[in-house]
Fold:
Amino acid sequence: MAYRWKNDLTRDDVTPYGAYMNRRQLMAGFAGVGLAAMAGTKAQAMELEANSWEEITTYNNFYEFGTGKGDPAKNAHRLTTDPWTVTIDGMVDRPGDYAFDEIMAAMTVEERIYRFRCVEAWSMVVPWNGFELKDLLDLAGVKSGAEYVAFETLYRPDEMVGQKFGALDWPYVEGLRLDEAMHPLTIMATGIYGKTIPKQNGAPMRLVVPWKYGFKSIKSIVKITLTDKEPPTSWNKANGREYGFYSNVNPEVDHPRWSQATERKIGGGVFAKRVPTLMFNGYEDEVASLYDGMDLQRFY
Ligand code: MTE
Structure:
């Protein structure tokens, strides 16, 4: 049964495909520039640049393929995504290696139109195709006592050339609290815009948690571990002061280097203004109760 929530977004709100893929070009223009300058005309002009499929798949963050925005597009074709196996282990009833095809046969894929809010203070609306993470965890059977879910990306330096360098600790890791992972808004995406998800965007399966900053969405997942300890996360390990475990979208908790109170909508056109960032990225009614009584300034 498809999950129903108060979704105020329709197909009309979806960021145009070109703008979605081209935002990397937009952001590249800001490198080294204060984010206060983001509303500047340079950005708006760049946003209007026409883009081809070649252009739009040239700008990504996927450090396993290099730290340059164009590196994933150049290098991701080397990644073998078929066959693909996901190991599910730790505190589960049925640990094991699950073939991706076997997972897909058991899951119900649907479209979810979600806001996507980057920690760098831009946002868009994306039509993902995917299934609820809860259904996958139920397939493995979560044991009582499990409190967290740890995720791991593939480690295969022969195919992921960025892994020959130490930009991050490999493999790339992420984590959620179990109740966050079981929330029906949390999905594993296998497609975008009705197409199979491109390799540089995290094929064959990536996490999407719409009330958290985009960097939590770990790509090309090969391992899921149920545990009773808070798992390490790659960006927290790299810079713990700036990137916490929770990373919930919160306009009241600023990044140490910029405000999170407003955001710039990608694809909004020349006259686009910054808009207020919504608590939990607009999913407050759905998820605020997960954090009742927590000090959100402290647990950012
Ligand atoms: N997952 C892995 N394995 N490696 C990465 O470098 N980058 C993260 C996230 N997931 C990353 C990752 C960051 S910083 C962002 S902003 C998003 O992926 C970017 O996803 P996109 O390129 O599809 O927009």
